[in-house]
């Protein structure tokens, strides 16, 4: 039987870090759905048509540090406003979510649009200042010379575009558990998520 965990939230809230740890803990497969949009964004920066790029996306396109740049993140958030791009990526995500053995998917619209029937939904957030500082540290480690102010402006622009778009905007599902990681360690955020999932599994087992 499939068991799906949907983790949504804004940029650098900790979704990926929590998802990876949870996947290891429960033996679930993990899909970072942001990588799909980043891969399409990267192809568009290289001159491709967004919808054609989304339809032709190959799992091999999801590898690589080149997708982690701020420029690709912005391109991802622009292509993500196109309903035809989102449509082209839906079947792959739903197929992944239905894997036997369980799956965790993180993104913006997993609990609301991709997997509205997910057994567990979480909305992970943190203050914009906190998220910008986390992302800035990551970019610094990659050798980027972006200032904290630029990273903050970037994160805020992306949040506004993601939350304001007409199709599948960034939003918490009505039945999502909210986790604000601003003052939480990674270990605490992971422990809290594991507890939510374990409780859902227990109640399903009756
Ligand atoms: O996937 P998402 O963009 O939501 O965030 P992430 O890549 O999991 O986390 C962004 C950065 O914040 C990573 O460097 C994490 O190590 C860090 N982080 C943190 O400092 N405290 C947390 N509670 C969660 C993540
Ligand atoms: O790691 P971070 O949270 O900064 O970004 P990401 O999860 O890699 O997502 C990059 C961009 O893809 C987001 O700003 C969204 O515009 C878009 N995205 C989306 O629209 N729907 C998803 N399920 C995942 C990402």
From TrEMBL:
Q: Which residues form a coiled coil?
A: none
- Give the location in the cell: Cytoplasm
Q: Name one Pfam family in it.
A: Cytidylate_kin
Q: Does the keyword Transmembrane apply?
A: no
GO CC terms for this protein?
A: cytoplasm
What CDD domains is this protein classified in? CMPK (cd02020)
Tagged with keyword Transferase: yes
Regarding protein family, the annotation reads: Belongs to the cytidylate kinase family. Type 1 subfamily.
The family database entries (HAMAP family) matched by this protein are listed as: Cytidyl_kinase_type1 (MF_00238)
The protein here is known as Cytidylate kinase
Source organism per UniProt: Yoonia vestfoldensis SKA53
The coding gene here is: cmk
């Amino acid at each position: 039987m499939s068991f799906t965990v949907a983790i949504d939230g804004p940029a650098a809230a900790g979704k990926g870090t929590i998802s990876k740890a949870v996947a290891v803990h429960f033996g679930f497969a993990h899909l970072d759905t942001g990588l799909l949009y980043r891969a399409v964004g990267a192809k568009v920066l290289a001159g491709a048509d967004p919808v054609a790029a989304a339809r032709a996306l190959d799992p091999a396109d999801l590898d690589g540090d080149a997708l982690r740049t701020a420029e690709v993140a912005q391109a991802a958030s622009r292509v993500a406003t196109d309903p035809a791009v989102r449509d082209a990526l839906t079947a792959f995500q739903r197929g992944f979510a239905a894997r036997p053995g369980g799956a965790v998917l993180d993104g913006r619209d997993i609990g609301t649009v991709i997997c509205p029937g997910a057994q567990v939904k979480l909305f992970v957030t943190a203050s914009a200042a906190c998220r910008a500082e986390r992302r800035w540290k990551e970019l610094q480690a990659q050798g980027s010379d972006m200032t904290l102010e630029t990273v903050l402006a970037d994160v805020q622009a992306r949040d506004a575009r993601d939350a304001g778009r007409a199709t599948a905007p960034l939003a918490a599902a009505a039945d999502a558990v909210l986790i604000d990681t601003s003052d939480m360690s990674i270990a605490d955020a992971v422990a809290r998520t594991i507890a939510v999932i374990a409780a859902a599994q227990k109640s399903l087992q009756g």
